[in-house]
Fold this sequence. Notes:
Elements: H1 13-20, H2 27-42, E1 49-53, H3 61-67, E2 72-76, H4 80-89, E3 94-96, E4 107-113, H5 124-134, E5 135-146, H6 151-159, H7 171-180, E6 184-191, E7 216-222
Parallel strand pairs: 1-2, 1-4, 2-3, 4-5
Antiparallel strand pairs: 5-7, 6-7
Amino acid sequence: xxxxxxxxxxxxxxxxxxxxxxxxxxxxxxxxxxxxxxxxxxxxxxxxxxxxxxxxxxxxxxxxxxxxxxxxxxxxxxxxxxxxxxxxxxxxxxxxxxxxxxxxxxxxxxxxxxxxxxxxxxxxxxxxxxxxxxxxxxxxxxxxxxxxxxxxxxxxxxxxxxxxxxxxxxxxxxxxxxxxxxxxxxxxxxxxxxxxxxxxxxxxxxxxxxxxxxxxxxxxxxx
Length: 223
């Protein structure tokens, strides 16, 4: 990511997001949704060190600490102003806007939620390679992205001021990038089919991962 473009949005991020996303598509609900899926896929795997890659203002921190209560939480983002907001949300998190300060071969888990569409095309493989380097031998990366085939997702994407200069990538493209960065694909599929009023149907999602209608998709990858 070549510049901290989110500095300008840091203090008003929540308000801008709320005005861009319909109330029926509650962003906090979907943020929790992704961390819940990650925890479910990992099962009993021991997770002691977590990196939220592109953490922004730390909107996922509370969900991460809820599902991984005993883990050490790190956050990385280019926007130092966003990290100031994140620090207020979760003082215990270790935050950095300098990638070189992160410990190599350290993390059991990296979560990258809706980050890579903001990274310029030519920098995406390098970003994944960086994540590969800071994962430990048995570490895994869960990458979530917008599904460009979902019309509601595309409508929100095109309306949101954060995404003016962003470029969506498909599940197939993400898998290819991950493989170029030497990752092994553990599992991949579409997700976020059900808004909050239909949360009781979430148990059906594993049966629908093949269907390219979910609001987002995920790729679970390992070293």
